[in-house]
Amino acid sequence: MPDGHPGVSLMLTGWWGVRWFPSGPTLDSVTGRFEAWLAGGSAAAKPQVSAVDPDGGPQEGIRYPGQRYDLPAHGTGSVASMGRRLTALLVDCVLATLVTSLFVHVQFARLEALNYWSLLTWFVLTVAGTWFFGATPGMALLGLRLARVDGHPTLPPWRAAARAALVVLIVPAVIWDADHRGLHDKATGTIVLTH
After folding, report:
1. How far is the CA of 151 from the CAs of 44, 45, 68, 169, 191, in angstroms?
2. 56-65 average pLDDT score
């Protein structure tokens, strides 16, 4: 087979000499699969369009977060901003610490114990809130709600627990896509919207 034939590559195979083998995945194909996985839900079936053209300006296609899910750009049902989401998380953390301090007596020298109990309280508040109400207390206070990208109205408890556990790990929650969905949202098929 000639060099450069699509789908094959030339490899040295020790004392047997040279043989033709099917090509492995290219960086472009792996990147495309990863981007499709990041898109999640119904967006994986839609064509992925870059939001920026080679000249650096906005391109036709995706102009705002949530467009690929047919969500409005602003107002009720639009994708929540990063600032509101982080503020809601901060409210939830403060609330968890306050609730924990009512039940756990900690000496000043051992504040790390309060942190562990507060984390457990936060986890319970987050799982219960998103499972029963579709929002944590902080999300409800800031007018946000958690929705599934597949359109199902409720979040099962295992998804709520998995999402909260991924937020605790921090790294999945800080890797975002153009729709403001972190890896924790992608893994659980969720998106945070304004209410």
Report:
1. 15, 15, 14, 27, 11
2. 63
